[in-house]
Amino acid sequence: MELASKYDPQAVEAKWYEYWLNNKLFSSKPDGREPYTVVIPPPNVTGVLHMGHMLNNTIQDILVRRARMEGKNACWVPGTDHASIATEAKVVARLAEQGIQKTNLTREDFLKHAWDWTHEHGGIILKQLRKLGCSCDWDRTAFTMDEARSEGVIKVFCDLYNKGLIYRGVRMVNWDPQAQTALSDEEVIYKEEHSKLYYLKYRVVESDCQRVDEGNVIHQDAQGYYAVVATTRPETIMGDSAMCINPNDAKNTWLKGKHVIVPLVNREIPVIEDDYVDVEFGTGCLKVTPAHDINDHALGLKHGLATIDIFNDNGTISEAAGLYVGMDRMDVRRRIAKDLEAAGLMEKVEDYNNKVGFSERTNVPIEPKLSTQWFLRMQHFADLALEPVMSDDIEFYPKKYKNTYRHWLENIKDWCISRQLWWGHRIPAYYFTATDGKRSFVVAPTAEEALAKAQAQNGKLTAADLEQESDCLDTWFSSWLWPISVFDGINHPDNEEVRYYYPTSDLVTGPDIIFFWVARMIMAGYEYRRTYPFKHVYFTGIVRDKLGRKMSKSLGNSPDPIALIEKYGADGVRMGMMLSAPAGNDILFDESLCEQGRNFNNKIWNAFRLVKGWKTAPVEQPKANEQAVEWFAAKLKQSHAELQAQFKQYRISEALMTVYKLFWDEFSSWYLEMVKPAYVNGEAQPIDQTTYDATIAFFDDLLKMLHPFMPFITEELWQHITDRKEGESIMRATLQMDAPTAHDEQLMADIEQVKLMVSGVRTVRNQKNIAPKEPLTLIAIGDNKMQAYNSIISKMANLEAIDVAKEKPADASSFMVGTDEYAVPLGNLIDVAAEIDKAEKELQHLEGFLMGIRKKLSNDNFVAHAPEAVVARERKKESDSVEKIAALKQTIAELKKK
């Protein structure tokens, strides 16, 4: 099989991915080996690959491929999430394009459209992950709404309800007016908004406002007395049930016991007192709208206030408001401000910055809303999940996220798990009329079981009398079971697979879903398996552009991952992502990194072609080659040990750099130069078989080190090293190495000195414009400590001799390696006149520089007032310049003698 002259990622990648699939090399079945299990964070079923997916899945694939090469039974389970809100929104939008309204469809008809959409668009992202090289066990692909996962979700709901952990009640929830569903607190993103603070006039009903205490701030105009309320949401005044003041607020005691009129609405409401009110905010008068603010709701319950819900589910104004009925809430805010001004009921308007909650899914401002919902009591789960992370039974990388996790669990609220959607797992609650005529409900996995339970309360009931809850469950209620449910561990808790693969090994995810998903999976793990769901959690950063901006379609700064792969190859893109991806830190992605990755592919390819192109001969191994082979074997052991330590700490980008530098710097730039055959009369000479075999073995080891990061090119070249059997793959090849010995360490230290000597000679060549082909002599001044490596030094620096002398010859150019001095006699190899001119120009520059330094140091004011370290630094510059000037003058004098 001939190796192409140039690396073509497109041909190589497609060929080997098909080979891996055909030979079931990603497949995993329980056996006697140590399992290594990873479950993919399930992307939205109808989603497409973005840069965040690229990063996350590249890291997962690196970990999985490495585990496979360690001899573990690696199992990477892929799958997708049904994404209730996002998917339903897309289906509703497509139906609208066809002139169909969701409200005109039955639930069954709508779900048919939703499944059609899912089958049409679903799974695209999983196909795209194959182009990245992801080695998932595709036969295990799961979907959060497939039969097994759905059965498990319903079973868990019923179990938690029976345990008293799920309840139904009227609560203030976060309402998404666009998706028309409740959201959990974690699905609300708070953003800084440039808003307005509106100061509204609430006229006092009582004409007698004579009670005035010291410090009161009384407002009065031609129409009488009024109180002023500051609010950012004037559109909610139609829901006001009271005005509240702090009983300890000196400026508002005149309002105690009074009643005020809601502006425009003309409804009389009482002034109540509660120390909840912040006397420093606005005027200290608070409008109380129990239906549309969680704190106002608490005040309403405490003081027995009426609850007036002025919003429809879609964010328009309801009939209960009496004004602006049918208008959108944001339109009303603009309109009501004008109407209040026109009515003389606006005291003033100020610019105001505040944080506003937005739906994480639809990016519209959420609306606090009283609603009957289903909730999960979370304190029980917080108690289960906190200690394992804080004690490092579950380890976070980086550790800083432990505090984020702890803070959330210590301040946890009950989880609103119901959603007013049709696409999702329908809540298994069934309503009926009891014998006393009141509505009741039962919870059961099936309608048949529900009927049996309901008949215990009313024996006359039939199946037709039961009405199932219309709400479905939050998508995360299925995702939190993922590490268990992918192995069917909810429905069959003792099956062979869940006992073998669970708990999983590593979870790779973003810190933005630490509450949505990570914490909840830990809770479910301890609730249903009595242990953690994963041992390690690696948090990736957010992928940003090179300017630090988060990538988004609106900014147009997010490249198409598939286009990148087509341009640079999957290995190039994987490397580009990982070069700037330290755990937990944001990634400043620059396409030039992918180009660097592609260049590295070409470097590997060309190095392999170079080595495979060598001819061998049955000749004795030269001393230089023997030492080079021994040195690089030590470097391999050293780098392997570094890799082990870096992977243990999940410093994956550092691990890549370790292998990158080992190949590019040590193997290509030094080792291959040390051993490559000489050219005689333009023709390459053969290399000894011993060195050739060692070099091929080194290449084999390097490819194994690189494989987790760059799977395609490493497979291609590994298959070319020698004839392989069908089904053989580098991904199943193991790499074991001993730690470097003391002898190895000394050898590596010696070769570092050798490198510096060679670099010193090369620098002299460059400075003096001496051709690389011109043989030189190197003189060690006093002693040649590296004499044992003369053969390597001579070959690498093109030296005809390495001598020892007590003093540097007059015509030599010298350099230092540590405290050792070396000289290269130049003789007639240089242009003396040019060298004198160059030295004199440098001397002139240094003398000018020294003059400036001495002028500064002669300034008593500078010396007296500048920091001591600054003055010392200037004196050091002075002494260094004096030394350099003296050396240059000596060099010029010696050159003029020639």
Report the C-alpha radius of gyration, rounded. Answer: 38 Å
Helix-and-strand structural type:
alpha/beta
Percent of residues in helices comes to 40-55%
Query: How far apart lie the N and C ends?
Result: 61 Å
Strand residue content: 15-25%
Low-confidence stretches: none
Write down how many β-strands occur, each being a DSSP E stretch of 2 or more residues: 34
The largest sheet, given as strand count, sense and whether it forms a barrel, is: 8 strands, mixed
How many DSSP helices?
A: 27
Mean pLDDT: 92
Shape: globular
Task: Give a description of the structure.
α15 (514-528) links the parallel β23 and β24. The model has no long low-confidence stretch (mean pLDDT 92). This protein is globular. It is of the alpha/beta class. Strands 7, 8, 9, 10, 11, 12, 13 and 14 form an eight-stranded mixed sheet that branches. Helix content is 43%, strand content 19%.
Write a compact overview of the structure shown.
By secondary structure, the protein is of the alpha/beta class. It has 27 helices and 34 strands. The strands form eleven sheets. Strands 7, 8, 9, 10, 11, 12, 13 and 14 form an eight-stranded mixed sheet that branches. A four-stranded antiparallel sheet has the order 6-5-15-17.
